[in-house]
Specification:
By secondary structure, the protein is mainly β. It is 10% helix and 37% strand. Bound molecules: sulfanyl-(tricuprio-$l^{4}-sulfanyl)copper, dinuclear copper ion (CUA) and calcium ion. Sulfanyl-(tricuprio-$l^{4}-sulfanyl)copper (K7E) binds next to β23 and β27.
């Protein structure tokens, strides 16, 4: 056994060797190590690691979910640059659903049907405005400090958007593009109303911007980085309109919110406003910025805002210079060691923990002291930091078990470290005997996010921790240069963390939440009257209006209501399809060869597509989704007359 720089036990020196190169660089605070590539590209790594893999266990068979049994939790996971969101079961790790969000998905017809295009947003010519995205963080709606299962939100870092997902169908119902924002990264819902304390459920969604841009970004200030800015946005959870934005100094990374509803916070790694990474690392301290939501909204009511460019959204000034007086400040910048990553709120409502990334520490910020700063009772915002335990190399994200312990992912050390928050506070006050680090476990490899079951609610149950690992290397059959990612489920119910299993993750998820299954109530079928364009036996048929043709179809296994229909070359054809079947899971598809049309209709659901019939001929529109013994026979013949 040996110790690394952080004083922690090293269980397997052979394995450390492959990670050593990366770790050593990190000790100097330097960057290239952060890619983790030093470790990943070492071909010898695979052989050397297998021992460690065995040593790490994986024996927790009693968490197996036997055939026919259901999982205890839903995992709602982001999908990174796939642009989607995934639902997995926990503890099984089985993938249950992939929800298309910012991406095109022919399985359901997302980005193909008129209804989904209207949600995703189109250009004047009817084409999608964007069909790519980058999802990082999924968070749910709260009632009484815990998930109510009604809705979930996810960010799009790529185009600065927020999408809302219905909890009853796990489908996206709204997408909002944030004005004057690039690199929208952190997102979090409020846990109760910041202004009206009688409202105990989610009313707002907060969104931080990671990249500095000219405001507005219309060609001005391009060579004047000092004029660039970052906006923190607040959306209305109900309407999905952007209620307001707050300009900050520095940038924003992750977002967390307080349980009393009053504060949102975002960690900042670029208070320098740097353009290159070395500039972004020049300051000793970055910050965690707290937003006093009630004060911001009062300022807007009082007319103290500007608007930027074409946007009508009110923008308040949350920069340091404008907020020097705590009595009126909208924002409080709590200094934390350079370039922190995630910020997470503890389930007891007391603390916000910023993970150090370039610093081997986590900073524990006492919310009551932030509140005192806003009240003018303490002068130095840094005094709100009540602990800064040394945990290891590359701390990125922290989860909680509801028993006072925190679990932090160490990217460079490839470990999860379990530590006690109260002990860390005692140690910070000078208690040399405080036992801060309670356990650590190797993960495979380089974890990014880590999150606990119900850990972002006041009902954190301390059963599971999921480590979202960025490199899988030798954990799965190789499939070429790019490897699938590993998610490792860890049992945290006892004193020692125990690895339960690995499951694969198609690249590349970031964050997720683990939601108790009973918090979510899904529905079995849709209802015809939810769709104003639903087709009935009476309205089914074909209608022509100049060169616009509307084909109204119904489906009922194993047939569509029309056996054939004719249109003319050049017609603009809309096909509306209502699935009259009422049996749960009895979904039909509709694919048109050579026309890029492919979508499904679930029981009692209606969808439509519009296209130009530009190729004469016979086209068999067929059911793409297996539905019936006569599924293959379920077709209708589209004749496009020349
Ligand atoms: Cu750490 Cu985008 Cu939450 Cu990735 S972020 S890991
Ligand atoms: Cu209908 Cu297959
Ligand atoms: Ca920095």
């Amino acid at each position: 056994m040996k110790n690394n720089e952080s004083g922690m036990e090293i269980r397997d020196p052979s394995r450390r060797k492959i990670l050593g190169g990366a770790a050593a660089l990190a000790g100097t605070g330097l960057t290239l190590s952060l890619t983790g590539c030093g470790a990943a590209s070492d071909g010898k790594g695979a052989a050397a690691t297998s021992t460690a893999a065995k040593a790490a266990g994986g024996s927790a068979g009693h968490f197996e979910v036997p055939p026919g049994k259901l999982d205890d939790y839903y995992i709602l996971s982001s999908g990174g640059h796939s642009g989607e969101v995934r639902i997995l079961g926990c503890p099984s790790g089985r993938t249950i659903k992939r929800i298309p969000v910012f991406n095109i998905d022919p399985m359901v017809g997302w980005g193909i049907t008129n209804e989904s295009k209207a949600i995703m947003g189109t250009r004047p010519d009817g084409q999608l405005k964007y069909w790519t995205g980058d999802t990082h963080h999924v968070h749910g709606s709260y009632t009484d400090g815990t998930y109510d299962g009604k809705r979930f939100w996810v960010n799009d870092k790529l185009h600065g958007r927020v999408a809302r997902i219905r909890g009853d169908t796990f489908e996206v119902d709204r997408i909002t593009e944030l004005p004057n924002v690039q690199g929208h990264h952190g997102i979090f819902t409020d846990k109760r109303d910041p202004v009206d304390s009688s409202i105990n459920h989610t009313t707002r969604v907060f969104a931080g911007a990671e990249f500095h841009i000219p405001l507005p970004n219309d060609g001005r200030d391009m060579d004047k980085p000092e004029a660039y800015g970052c906006l923190f946005s607040c959306l209305d959870a109900e309407t999905m309109d952007v209620r307001w934005q707050c300009r900050v100094d520095g940038n924003m990374d992750l977002v967390a919110t307080s349980y009393d509803g009053k504060y949102a916070a975002s960690n900042q790694y670029n208070v320098e406003g740097g353009i290159h990474y070395e500039d972004m690392m020049s300051a000793e301290h970055d910050a965690c910025v707290f937003f006093d939501v009630a004060r911001i909204e009062a300022a807007i009511k009082a007319g103290k805002f500007i608007t930027i460019g074409d946007s009508k959204v009110p923008v308040v000034d949350g920069r340091r210079a404008a907020n020097a007086d705590p009595a009126t400040a909208l924002t409080c910048y709590v200094p934390v060691p350079k370039n922190p990553h995630g910020v997470n709120a503890s389930p007891d409502g007391k603390y916000f923990v910023c993970s150090g990334k370039l610093s081997p520490t986590c900073s524990v910020i006492d919310l009551s002291l932030v509140e005192k700063w806003f009240a003018g009772e303490i002068k130095n915002a840094r005094d709100a930091v009540v602990a800064e335990p040394n945990l290891g190399l590359g701390p990125l994200h922290t989860g909680f078990d509801g028993r006072g312990n925190a679990y932090t992912t160490l990217f460079l050390d490839s470990k999860i470290v379990k530590w006690n928050v109260d002990a860390a506070i005692k140690q910070f006050k000078g208690d040399k005997n405080a036992k801060v680090v309670l356990d650590s476990i190797d993960v495979h490899y380089q974890p990014g996010h880590g999150f606990t079951s119900m850990g972002e609610t006041k009902n954190a149950d301390g059963k599971f921790f999921n480590s979202g690992n960025k490199f899988s290397k030798d954990r799965f059959l190789p499939v070429g240069p790019l490897h699938v990612e590993t998610e490792q489920l860890i049992d945290i119910s006892g004193d020692k963390m125990v690895l339960v299993h690995d499951h694969t993750a198609y690249p590349e998820p970031h964050d997720a939440i683990i939601v108790a299954a009973d918090a979510i109530k899904t529905r079995q079928i849709y209802s015809l009257d939810e769709f104003p364009n639903a087709v009935s036996a009476q309205t089914a048929g074909i209608e022509r209006n100049g060169n616009k043709v509307h084909v109204r179809l119904t489906s009922q296994a194993p047939a569509y209501s029309l056996r054939e229909f004719s249109v003319k070359k050049g017609d603009i054809v809309t096909i509306t399809l209502t699935n009259l079947d009422k049996v749960e899971d009895l979904t039909h598809g509709f694919g048109i060869p050579k026309y890029n049309i492919n979508f499904i209709v679930n029981p009692q659901e209606t969808k439509s597509v519009t296209f130009v019939a530009d190729k004469p001929g016979v086209y068999w529109c067929y059911c793409t989704h297996f539905c019936h013994a006569l599924h293959l026979e379920m077709r209708t013949r589209m004749v496009v007359e020349g």
